[in-house]
Specification:
The complex is a heterotrimer of chains A (about 325), B (about 475) and C (about 270).
Chain A: H1 3-14, H2 19-27, H3 34-44, H4 51-64, E1 65-68, H5 76-87, E2 101-104, H6 109-116, E3 122-126, H7 137-149, E4 154-158, H8 161-165, H9 169-183, E5 187-191, H10 194-197, H11 200-212, E6 217-219, H12 231-248, E7 253-255, H13 263-276, E8 289-291, H14 294-307
Parallel strand pairs in A: 1-2, 1-8, 2-3, 3-4, 4-5, 5-6, 6-7
Helix pairs in contact in A: 3-12, 4-13, 4-14, 5-6, 7-9, 11-12, 12-13
Chain B: E1 19-20, E2 22-24, E3 27-29, E4 36-41, E5 46-52, H1 56-74, H2 79-95, H3 97-108, H4 112-133, E6 151-155, H5 161-175, E7 178-182, H6 189-200, E8 208-210, H7 215-223, E9 229-233, H8 236-246, E10 252-256, E11 262-265, H9 271-283, E12 295-299, H10 303-314, H11 335-350, E13 354-356, E14 372-375, H12 382-385, E15 392-398, H13 401-409, E16 416-420, H14 424-433, E17 438-441, E18 460-461, H15 468-471
Parallel strand pairs in B: 1-5, 6-7, 6-9, 7-8, 9-10, 11-12, 11-16, 12-15, 14-15, 16-17
Antiparallel strand pairs in B: 2-3, 4-5, 10-18, 13-14
Chain C: E1 27-30, E2 33-36, H1 40-59, H2 62-77, H3 80-85, H4 90-106, H5 110-113, E3 116-117, E4 124-132, E5 135-139, H6 145-157, E6 162-166, H7 172-183, E7 192-195, H8 199-208, E8 214-216, H9 223-233, E9 239-241, H10 257-261, E10 263-271
Parallel strand pairs in C: 5-6, 5-8, 6-7, 8-9
Antiparallel strand pairs in C: 1-2, 3-4, 4-10
Helix pairs in contact in C: 1-8, 2-4, 4-6, 8-9
The chains are: A alpha/beta (about 325), B alpha/beta (about 475), C alpha/beta (about 270).
């Protein structure tokens, strides 16, 4: 690190103390040209990943899946089954890696924890009045602490989009700081809900805000609004974590969530990671997919590569 | 590390004949004196085919065939029917797009992703666009009953072989002219496949004639007294020679020549997209682009930041097999062009500019040049003044918008320019002052059949594309 | 061997890319076939479908719209015989095909002829460009059934409008058959909607509909009815194309007025400065 970079670090750590400083900083970030960003994302999507590269990408993608169920109808039985699948995604093939994490509502955490204990598969819980975040701060923090106490080692919080869009950046910042504190040792993923932020400029600002406030991961979406993760949104967030590490030395992870359903989609994201932030992020510690149906498609494609025959959904477990 | 496995596009979709004749009066014919030359794959130096070399007698034959077709068939034909032939051609191009793309990449060296996603789709679109004009000429704003010129002599370069053919032939035919076209000697194959497409479309004989050969063939064509119109795309030097040779004749002339475009990045630019635009501006098609953004003018207060991002991005460029679907930069088109790029790059280093390329392995056979930038370049350097026509970017800095304009315009060329800033009024202020035929703002190297393209000053005159592109082929 | 018994076609409405029967369950016998007798509610449904299609169709690139109109010409060429069997002359079918081709070419040219830079006296960029007006109600001419119909639909949709067409009551089979062409030409559902039946039921509803932006009265032969419809149209200032003269030559060069009447012009100002 050069002297300038070091001083840049200390400058950034002061930003959260003043609404004005935060606003000046966030609005001073370079703009994002929508057309250009979308074209770049589309261009990366045309990479052709074949044979050995595809096989490696599929296994990596499986290890990056945050296998998710966030339904009102979730039951202990349902989430236990999901956790079992997380451990052994393809019971027929012991060489198949386990997923990155299981992601559930706080009330479901204890049931998943029983299954995952000691497995190396992380246990993520959404919290902070997911998905809207429209609850008093104390409630959100209690939600977070409860999830951690029940065994979650990763917390997926939502930012206060209303406050962000109204320009009350300090409020958003303080909530993230408080949630991070409530997490204790658990990793904090900050959900920006990019579908509600409407512009890439906002996505970039929200990404920086979340990182400045101490988020370990930035995540696109709850999956509960019409527009979830998209390649250009993820590209803008990857650029943000890249620039943030250059400025501060701290590496932050990225998690696109929602709408990623096929192996083809997942590989496009991996290409984007590879060519935007590089191999440092090509690891489940730094990049995750929030998804549910993606896993089975990855498994089907994985089987296709070994057998040469297209698989059908009947041959994979549905949990 | 995520290594991409080779992903080569299949060559089996193209069927290259061992030798090709000239396409005259609807048929492939042998040249009178039997001369020929070879077209090679610049990525491997493999000989692709033996190509007939047209002498002056052959050119004469082609011009006479074009005249005959003009007088008897194409000139009198209702625009509505000319349109249908052009629509047919457009459709066949779409149907045979993969074949055309692979052949273009083989003969030219450009990456398949560009021939597949840029060149060939634009070719089809260009024919579609001008097909639609053929029955609407009286609406084009050139008077009540615009007439064609007659026979057009068209000479095109090797950088976008099929696309330049489309830019020439589509408006000429739409307006009711017939053509004799000479493709570049290093890239004749897609033009010859286009000749087959004309046959497939049942285009009347003689409407399109293709004569292959080098400079002498081109000279014979543009100097032929039987042509009414000359259209040339290529170097400024040859363009000037053509302008001299048609002086005093009735031939209408349009020229699309060299460039040394400034790509101007302000401190409030969307940096990530600007970096993409810089890369696309100079490394698209190996920099073999007349409108390439070969001079980067970056505002001094963001120069370090932009250059750091640019270098990081350049390290991601994949140089190699043009047929690999993941290749970003293909082969230099010829050994002669490679020698010129090397010569100018060495001059850049000798004159004191700092040279940088990302680490990249170049294949042993074929013609290759790593993507390169020079920093610390001043207006006095040769690499800031002369067109390199390769993947070499000269970086200069500026302090104020006025200085950027001054530097951008300080060249005999005037084909294109780029502006990167989030401020709309500055874009328009700059655009007003830039002496260039195409100004891209927050984008670069964008082409569309509806959009006129062409240069100021020594970058040539006349416009191709759009409504304006008709004017070159109408007696107005 | 007994003679083969033919399978007869059912002629239905064309709304939102689908072929529903009239919600009224009614039909009328014309040209030896039962044809749906559209009701006011069908007209309302058609307007909803047309409105829903505006965003995508107007937002498509001009190139894309041109390609689709050209595709219609291709598909129509392949079904020449069907239209001849319904009573069209070969010349009429030819002209109808060519008309699609003519308008297909206009998609990416009209703005270049009917828009442009304005040299205002001041440091401003100033550009005028046409935009589609939105949903257009169209009364197709009685005859020529096919060429007349194509001549009113194509100029409305090429620029990005969507249409609800009241087909010729006496010759609706060509209209429904054209709908089959449109349904197989990559034209998004809802861009063209075709109602068959009595004009007196559907057209006043369309003329008065507050979510219709323009009305083309070309096929209204009765001058009093045309005036009445124009009065209804005035309520929300619909753009109006008046009825065609009885001796209109449908084979002649149609010019560009049909397109321009159904367009808005938008002028954009922007300062120029550092």
């Amino acid at each position: 690190m050069t002297a300038t970079a070091t001083s840049a670090r200390s400058d950034l750590s002061e930003l959260g103390r003043s609404e004005t400083a935060l606003r000046t900083f966030l609005h001073g970030l370079p703009g994002v040209d929508q057309v250009g960003a979308e074209q770049r994302a589309a261009q990366l999507g045309t990479r052709s990943i074949k044979t050995t590269a595809k096989a490696e990408a599929i296994d990596l993608a499986i290890r990056m899946v945050d296998l998710t169920t966030l339904e009102g109808a979730d039951t202990p039985g349902k989430v236990r089954a999901l956790a079992a699948k997380a451990l052994r995604p393809d019971p027929a093939d012991p060489s198949c890696p386990h997923v990155g994490a299981v992601c559930v509502y706080p009330a479901m955490v204890p049931y998943v924890a029983e299954v995952l204990r000691g497995s190396g598969v992380h246990l993520a819980s959404v919290a902070t009045a997911f998905p809207s975040g429209q609850a008093p701060l104390e409630v959100k923090l209690a939600d977070t602490r409860a999830a951690v106490a029940a065994g979650a080692d990763e917390i997926d919080m939502v930012i206060n989009r209303g406050a962000f869009l109204a320009g009350r950046y300090s409020e958003v910042y303080d909530e993230i700081v408080a949630t991070k504190e409530a997490c204790g040792d658990a990793h904090l993923k900050v959900i920006l809900e990019t579908g509600e932020l409407a512009t890439y400029d906002n996505v970039r600002r929200a990404s920086w805000l979340a990182m400045l406030a101490g988020g370990d991961f930035i995540k696109t979406s709850t999956g509960k609004v019409p527009v979830a993760a998209t390649p250009p949104v993820t590209l803008v967030m990857l650029e943000a974590v890249r620039d943030f590490r250059a400025a501060t030395g701290r590496q932050v992870g990225v998690k696109p969530a929602g709408g990623i359903k096929t192996t083809k989609d997942a590989i496009k994201y991996l290409v984007m990671v590879n060519e935007t932030v590089g191999p440092d992020w090509l690891d489940p510690d730094w990049f995750r997919f929030g998804a549910s149906s993606l896993l089975n498609d990855l498994l089907m494609q994985r089987t296709k590569l070994t057998t040469g025959v297209y698989a059908g959904p009947d041959y994979f477990t549905l949990d | 590390m995520f290594e991409y496995a080779p992903a080569p596009e299949s060559r089996s979709v193209v069927d290259i004949k061992p030798s090709y004749g000239l396409f005259v009066d609807g048929k492939f014919v042998d040249p009178t004196d039997g001369g020929s030359f070879k077209s090679i794959n610049p990525a491997s130096e493999e000989v692709l085919a033996e190509i007939a070399e047209a002498g002056s007698e052959d050119v004469d034959r082609a011009v006479r065939a074009a005249r005959e077709a003009y007088e008897r068939v194409w000139g009198p034909m209702p625009g509505r029917d000319r349109a249908k032939y052009l629509f047919r051609i457009a459709r066949i191009i779409q149907e045979r797009s993969r074949e055309l793309a692979v052949l273009e990449s083989l003969d030219n060296g450009k990456p398949i992703k560009e021939s597949r996603d840029v060149d060939v789709p634009l070719v089809a679109a260009h024919f579609f666009y001008y097909a639609g004009w053929a029955d609407k000429l009286e609406h084009a704003g050139f008077g009540a009953n615009p007439r064609p010129l007659g026979v057009a002599a068209q000479v095109i370069p090797w950088n976008f072989p099929l696309l330049m053919l489309a830019w020439k032939i589509a408006p000429a035919l739409a307006a009711g002219n017939t053509v004799v076209l000479k493709p570049a000697e290093t890239t004749p194959l897609t033009a010859l496949l286009f000749a087959e497409i004309c046959q497939q479309a049942d285009l009347p004989a003689g409407v399109v004639n293709i004569v292959t050969g080098a400079g002498e063939t081109g000279r014979a064509l543009v100097e032929h007294p039987g042509v009414d119109k000359v259209a040339f795309t290529g170097s400024t030097e040859v363009g000037k020679a053509i302008a001299r040779s048609v002086a005093g004749t009735r031939k209408k002339l349009t020229l699309e020549l060299g460039g040394k475009a400034a790509n101007i990045v302000f401190d409030d630019a969307p940096i990530d997209q600007a970096v993409e635009g810089i890369v696309n501006g100079i490394f698209f098609n190996q920099g073999h682009v007349c409108c390439a953004g070969s001079r980067l003018l970056v505002q001094e207060n963001v120069a370090d930041r932009v250059l750091e991002s640019l270098k990081r991005r350049m390290a991601q460029l994949r140089v190699g097999d043009p047929l690999d679907k993941n290749t970003d930069i293909g082969a230099i088109n010829s050994s002669a062009q490679l020698a010129r790029i090397r010569e100018l790059s060495e001059a850049g280093a000798a004159e004191g500019a700092e040279r940088w390329s990302p680490p990249c392995e170049l294949p042993d056979r074929g013609f290759w040049f790593a993507p390169t930038i020079f920093t610390g370049v001043t207006q006095a350097h040769r690499i800031a003044r002369e067109e390199i026509f390769g993947p070499v970017l000269s970086v200069l800095t500026f302090r104020t918008p006025a200085e950027a304009v001054e530097k951008a315009n300080n060249t005999p060329y005037g084909l294109s320019a780029g502006i990167w800033t989030d401020k709309g009024s500055r874009i328009l202020w700059m655009a007003d002052r830039l002496r260039a035929g195409v100004v891209w703002a927050n984008t670069f190297n964008k082409f569309d059949p509806t959009s006129p393209f062409g240069g100021y000053k020594e970058s040539g005159y006349g416009r191709e594309g759009g409504r304006h592109g008709l004017e070159a082929y109408l007696n107005v | 061997m007994s003679e083969r018994v033919a399978v007869r076609k059912t002629y239905k409405l064309f709304i939102g890319g689908k072929f529903p029967r009239s919600e009224s369950g009614r039909s009328y016998l014309v040209q030896d076939s039962n044809v749906s007798l559209a009701s006011r509610k069908d007209a309302r449904d058609a307007v909803l479908a047309a409105r829903a299609a505006v965003k995508g169709w107007a937002g498509a690139t001009a190139y894309n719209r041109g390609q689709i109109l050209y595709r219609v010409a291709e598909m129509l060429e392949g079904r020449r015989d069907q239209f001849v069997a319904l009573g069209a002359s070969a010349a009429e079918v030819d002209a109808a095909i060519d008309r699609w081709v003519w308008y297909a070419g206009w998609s990416d040219k009209l703005a270049q002829v009917y828009g442009g830079a304005n040299p205002v006296a001041g440091p401003y960029f100033n550009l005028s460009a046409p935009e589609p007006t939105g949903v257009v109600a169209v009364v197709a001419p009685e005859s020529p059934a096919l060429l007349g119909l194509v001549s009113v639909i194509a100029p409305a949709v090429v620029t990005g409008n969507t249409v609800v067409v009241a087909a010729s009551p006496s010759a609706p089979l060509a209209a429904v058959t054209l709908a089959e062409v449109l349904a197989t030409s990559d034209l998004p559902g809802g861009v063209v909607n075709i109602l068959t039946g009595r004009l007196s039921e559907t057209v006043p509803t369309l003329a008065a509909h507050m979510d219709v932006n323009a009305i083309d009265l070309t096929g209204v032969a009765d001058a009093d009815l045309a005036a009445e419809l124009e009065v209804k149209a005035a309520e929300n200032l619909k753009r109006v194309l008046r009825p065609a003269p009885a001796d209109n030559d449908w084979y002649a060069d149609p010019g560009i007025t049909r397109m321009t009447t159904l367009l808005e012009t938008k002028t954009v100002w922007h300062p120029k400065g550092v």
